[in-house]
């Protein structure tokens, strides 16, 4: 089941933000994340805030249905307009995630995007992305998305090997994600991503190489590759605990990352964040860059998280409770926190160090600066950016990114 929400102070019923959150907002980018909490089945490794039909049956009444969802989410977009007041910023990025957004009709995703456009306006070069399960779209669906204003699509490929997909309990067949890339290109999508997972129990180095080769051969301009994390409470965690499948160790994850870097670099991709590669700068996911650089975004939907001007909040998780709050004219916010200057400094280091450009050395406290000098000597930071005042990871530093980050934020 989905993981628990953090603790926090109550969110006002009208969702109002402190004046400090809105100060200086004109100089910050604004994006929207739109969460669709529905899945046909729950994958064994997943702890995201998603629900199958059986999990929703009998809870939340008729308000929690897929059929009502686009209209319900549009209500939160209108709430965002009230909370942000006369904020003049057009929205630069919209990202529809889940769950499986493409379980909804393409017209519903278009209605959700239209609500953002009508309330805030979209920047002329706005990036508009949706995630998609390869089995939940076809050429006509993708063409409808493109006509509605979507500019980017991200397909969950995970692996090209059937036995790996079975362990992950993914429902698509090998080869379908590659077909989807071709269909997206034919529909007019310039930017297409494939999401991959490495380190699945039973996956070999050759399996991972085959997955990378298939992904590259499909012709996306962006690839994301994530190490599998076995989350407590998932079916996969229970299978590992019972000894049904082996746990993949950190050394294997490191080897698979090196294979990814070698394969993708040879195919003309460059990394710009530890888990993300693109063929050209224009192919970067600009929405994710909002997260990594501490910009403003409003997360609409059950369990969605938002951040505006140093205030972070999160919505109630269940679709029924979410819909009921909005129907009653209340914010669906479950809790929030106002970040201190120190919180924001630490978060900048945590997130920006994962980027190819790194983070400014002057963000580091004295202990962190000393750790950066040691990391440079140990070959974990690149000398040229360091000399220019930035801490930027080497390839070896990327393999040890979590440890480097911990040292630098001390």
Care to describe what's here?
The structure is a single chain. By secondary structure, the protein is of the alpha/beta class. The chain has 17 helices and 14 strands. The chain has helices at 19-22, 53-56, 66-84, 106-120, 139-148, 162-168, 176-187, 205-218, 235-241, 250-266, 286-292, 319-327, 341-352, 366-377, 383-387, 395-399, 401-409, and strands at residues 30-36, 91-98, 122-132, 152-158, 191-198, 222-227, 270-273, 276-278, 296-300, 305-308, 311-315, 333-338, 359-360, 390-391. The strands form three sheets. It has a nine-stranded mixed beta sheet, sandwiched between helices. Helix 4 packs parallel to helix 5 (139-148). The longest helix has 19 residues, at 66-84. The chain is globular. It starts with 18 loop residues before the first helix and ends with a helix.
